[in-house]
Design brief:
2 domains; globular; 2,3-Dihydroxybiphenyl 1,2-Dioxygenase, domain 1; 4-stranded mixed sheet
Length: 140
């Protein structure tokens, strides 16, 4: 058993795809036409870190309630955790690409960490090597 997908609600598909593939280095796994439950056109867009089993379904907001949730799906908490092998290289690449970091890198018992926002405004922890799991990361 494993978690197959999680959903992030985004304003538009294409800028979100570019952010996750070009800035974070994820693979675009699927981008196919689909329909909503009531028959309107949409896309099924999945991105995934290279070699990962769990992917992110990028869901374009549909309606006022979903647009209101863009960037605040977790009520301001860090809700996503991206662990990388080389923290300094990832941080430098992301900073150069214009990613908004909310904290400066710091060292904790579980590794090196900095909080950033994704294209939708959700908070993520960028985590480098450390002795503990990402589940102990900040809840900022």
């Amino acid at each position: 058993m494993h978690v197959e997908l999680i959903t992030i609600i985004v304003e538009k598909y294409d800028p979100a795809i570019r952010f996750f593939t070009e800035v974070l280095g994820f693979d675009l796994v699927e981008d196919v036409p689909s329909t909503t439950n009531d028959g309107r056109a949409k896309r099924w867009v999945v991105v995934r870190p290279p070699g990962a089993r769990t992917g992110i379904l990028l869901a374009q907001a549909d309606g006022e309630r979903q647009y209101a949730a863009v960037g605040d799906q977790l009520a301001g908490r860090v809700g996503f955790f991206l662990r990388v092998d080389d923290f300094d290289a990832a941080y430098a690449r992301m900073t150069a690409a214009g990613v908004e970091f909310l904290t400066q890198p710091r060292d904790e018992a579980y590794g090196r960490i900095a909080v950033f926002r994704d294209i939708a405004g959700n908070k993520w922890d960028l985590l480098g090597p450390g002795p503990s799991s990402p589940s102990e990361a900040s809840a900022a």
